[in-house]
Amino acid sequence: MAWLTIKPSVVKYTFLDSICLLIGLFFCAGLNGQKPVCGNEVFFTDRVSIEKMSEADKIIEDYLLQNAINTRSEIIIPVVVHIVWHKGEENLSDALVLSQIDALNRDFNAENSDIQNVPDEFKPVIGSPRIRFCLAAIDPSGNYTTGIIRVQCDRPEMGVSEDVFFSARGGSDAWDTEKYLNIWVANTGNLISGFGSYPNSVIPEKTGVVIHPKYFGMNRHRKYGMGRTATHEIGHYFGLRHLWADDRDCTTDDEVEDTPPQRNAHTNCPGYPQSGCSESEMFMNFMDYVDDPCMFLFTKGQSNRILATLNTYRSGLLSGNNKCIMPNSLQLSPLSIYPNPSRGLFHCRFSVAPMRIIKYGLYNAVGQLIRAEEQLINQDFYLNLETLPAGVYFLSIEREIYRLVKI
Predict the structure, then answer these.
(1) pLDDT digits (tens, 9 = 90+) for 121-133
(2) Least CB-packed of 52, 100, 209, 343 within 10 Å?
(3) Is the predicted pLDDT of residue 119 greater than 90, yes or no?
(4) What residue ranges in 86-231 does DSSP mark as E strands?
(5) What is the torsional sign of CA 19, 21, 27, 32?
């Protein structure tokens, strides 16, 4: 496994060095309350992994040299989110998952409202990869799905273990990583906020990104609650490096011309300008470490590199073989319910998949509300009335009433 995105020419770490660095960061985090960092910086620096990433860089750079990146239609990428949870609060809601998809769509299309905060000197290089993400509507077997998989594990932490990628080890197996972007949401411990697979760095079964549930979606976290941990890690998945190239000097950078040289990572919300090398540094870039409210942009060069990666290492995502459904109009299609009467389990199916959050209420025969839920629904969902007494019930969905008979 190889997640690190360090420039190969400056890496001299051994595996033991990586372990020592990891231990040191744990120690510092405990003493100083340090922000959990992107796992791409601190581990998996073996020679083979570095060589594979170097190969990827050459292929991506050759593509950029030989192909013009032209204006084109948006790219739609189907996403499957594997929620591997232990404590109840880690079993994130459908709504929070959708909020993460919305955040990605804003950030990868320069539609985030805070992009106006980019300093004037950097505004000319603001880029937009023009990528839209949506939850997969069809699984690898051709069945309807919401694109959300939930797995309860018996471990308080997954940490940085490879187990998260395999159902047999308590995690969740990847869907075809050629055709889906796989995102695992799992407790990576107190140190690591997430990590993403750099092109050519891992086997297909481990290709994607991993995000700690505390930093996923539009949550209430003061520093990291805008979904930008996922924006950052998906940047790695699409071939972007950290701005400072994971070293501590000004001679190497992230292989992108319009991001200035940078000596170190920036954290918190630094004042503008900041300069560690000879130029003002672009700390407000999504590939730095600042707090979510203080990062605003990808550059044109980064956007071109993302598209080059899509056309080389992630080209299966462009095939269109696995469609996903964007949320459609508010008008719901007719709902069929069967069997009805039933002994308790009712199968509900919309004639046209709405792929959105549906609110519904279940009432007894005298009109008392006995259950109210919100659920992300593609085409099918189930109502389980097995614990309720036999009788007539009514299902209310957006002003439509359906009669259920439990026998």
Answers:
(1) 999 999 999 999 9
(2) 343
(3) yes
(4) 126-127, 131-135, 148-152, 181-185, 192-196, 209-211
(5) negative
DSSP character for 84? E
Measured CA to CA, the distance from residue 150 to residue 142 in angstroms comes to: 19
> Which of the following is catalytic: 41, 90, 233, 255?
233
Contacts of 163 (CB under 8 A, 6+ apart): 155, 169, 170, 171
Interstrand relation of 209-211 and 148-152 (parallel, antiparallel or unpaired):
unpaired
Query: Does the active-site annotation cover 233?
Result: yes
Going through 58-139 in order, the beta strands assigned E by DSSP cover 75-85, 126-127, 131-135
Give me the pLDDT at residue 55, please.
93
Give the integer Cα–Cα distance in Å for 279 and 194: 29
In whole angstroms, how large is the CA radius of gyration of the chain? Answer: 23
Question: Contact 382/350 with Cβ under 8 angstroms?
Answer: no
Question: Which region holds residue 269: left if phi is over 0, alpha if psi is between -120 and 50, else beta?
Answer: beta
What single letter denotes the amino acid at residue 216?
F
Strand partners, 347: 338, 382
Contact (Cβ atoms closer than 8 angstroms) between residue 100 and residue 79: no
CB 243 within 8 Å of CB 5: no
Q: How much of the chain is helix, strand and coil, in % rounded to 5? A: 30, 25, 50
User: Model's pTM, two decimal places?
Assistant: 0.82
